[in-house]
Design goal:
Elements: H1 2-40, H2 46-67, H3 77-97, H4 103-110, H5 113-124, H6 131-150, H7 156-179, H8 185-203, H9 215-239, H10 242-249, H11 251-264, H12 270-294
Helix pairs in contact: 1-9, 1-10, 1-11, 2-3, 2-8, 2-9, 3-7, 3-8, 4-7, 4-11, 5-7, 6-12, 10-12
Length: 295
Amino acid sequence: MLNKYIYKFKKNNSTILKKAIYYMLLSALSFTFLNVFIKYLSDFSTYQKVFFRGLGSLFFTMCYLMYHKIPMLGNKKKLLITRGVLGVTSMSLFFAATNHLTIGTAVSLRYTAPIFAAILAVVFLKEKIYKLQWVFFLVAMLGVFLIKGFAAEINTIGLILVMSSAFFSGLVYVIITKIGTNDHPVVIINYFMWISVLIGGVLSINNWKVPQGNEWTLLFSLGIFGYFGQLFMTKAYQLGTVNKIVPLKYVEVIFTMILGVLWFGDVYPVLSLLGVLMVIVALVLNVFYKKKAKI
């Protein structure tokens, strides 16, 4: 009888883990299409893309909050606004960086955000960084320098833009931590999207390009893919333990690189790919070690 319950328990855990993996892969795929369409829509200004990114997601966040009767203004209003402004800044810098870098390179470098988040958390949240984490961060940054050194298309402007995007993304992590459970996650996203629409809309007025044909669909799809990418990732984290599924988060880099090669004809030198691998492996190991060190 005991063996029967043990088998059932393992089977249920296996089913849950498979579902978590499925959600994380869907999240990576959603973000991949978002990345590729951002690159494809390079004729549109950065702020116009920010505007449509926010507008496309607002439909889902507003409907969710109204259906569940969740107060939209939230509790930590100042922090919510700050998170939104920092998020728009990070997103705008990343969108601008895609005009100077191959999309796969831009995505891989943006993933250095957890390094900045960890360092900023020491300053603002008094968190601790373990010695081995510094080693992982060093490996990741060496990977960045390897990418810069051997990817001929990387220019200084693109590198500065994408690393600045990662820095502001790190600040976003800190603000979200300070908000904690005081506000519903969709309320946080809703603020972000409204601020994206307002800032993106105002700043793109003087450089507005009227979309033609399927460009309307592609622009609105930015918000749709962005929303579902976040939704599927959240569901994955809710179902599976972080250390088992977090490596799949970085599949987005691989998916994006593959589509970049097929769609835009991107070329990645072997040593540049090694740099990308160093960044991903170092950040995954950091997640594993940090979780283990806290136990």
